[in-house]
Amino acid sequence: MAESRRHRRRLVDFARLLGLQLVVGLLLFEVVLRLVSPWSQSVRSWTVVPQDSHDFASADSLPDLLDMTALGYRPCRDVGGFVTNSRGLRTPVFQMAGEPGVLRVVALGDSFTFASGGVPWSDLWTTKLQQLLHEGLRQPVEVINLGMPMVGPSFERRMWQLQGAALRPDVVVLEFYVGNDFRDEAWVPDDGFFSRYGRHSDVLAVLRNAWAGRVAGSEGHVPGALSFAEFHKSAELPQGGYEVEDYRRIFLARRPLYTRAQLLNIEMRDMRLCDLSQRAAFDGMCAKLEKTLLPFVAEVVGSGAQLLVVIVPDRIQVNSSERLAVLAALGRPDADFDWDAPQRWLDALLARNGVPCLDLLQPMRAESGGESEDGGGAEAHLPLYSADDTHWSVAGNALAATLIARQLERQLMPTGRRAASDH
Q: ∠ CA 25-31-36 to the nearest 5 degrees?
């Protein structure tokens, strides 16, 4: 009996020691991550937490705002085949004051606007939009891309306040991705002390990202890539703002971003917005999103710019074969889901407030025409989403640019010329 008690005591002591070592190890790992992440892009990409960990309204400048993003974008850095400009933005160099006679368009959004999974710059929808508007409106057009990955409307609103509004654009295109922009606004600054000032553990973020199979972002550097502080002290300032030569070959030869299993896991997470059993959670997201989106819209409209909100569907909403695969993996019937619910709510909100909106769900469903994972199908349409990613493919970007251009032409053309073009 005494021997049994001693044995249990040794086990308890060992468990306590092991637990203490684990806690100390995790604390040390947390300290290391927090010390290293500001200096390492790879570590930073693994420790990034969801958008709701930041109060973006607290950013006082564009560098402060960019520092809150996953990779903390800097001037003259090769990001997905495009060298960021002097402001750390993935768009060509621009002057704050627009040129007379040039239609200035500012695009705001998340990764679909930023790079759409890394498609070549010339294939990105914002680049194509500039050319299409130039041809359709018969005037010079400048599209300035202020998109940023892994952010939502709160970030985009602050980007507008710190950079977009000062550009005095004629048109603002706000891209809204159904797949995560509802979730991005699940937090607002008035949710309590921890939500406002706290930050999730970097260790937990790494573990969560590893479990989700997220691939760390990688960036190249061009000669002279600088921090903001170094950049503004430099006597010979590099310009940046250009596409990397031969990037298309690199893009076509790249490794898949996600495995099939990882992509299914992402889609299973995203489809919760359409899950009828999760309706209460969805209604809560909608209420919080409205608090951000409507004031944001009012600020843009108040600036005198034309506004167009473009609603980007999730790939599972567009691609029926993907939908069936996820339903099979979950073992649930299609009747458990309302696939159009997010768009229906957002369409109604914008209509009630007189906000021009382009919902891409139905046009993309129609264009997909039996789209399958290999791009086949009854009509052999090109797939609109990448086979290994959640973003638009080159074909998806081209279709989006065409639809957005048509909508903007209708909004911008004089009445008489618009009627003639409709015929």
A: 125
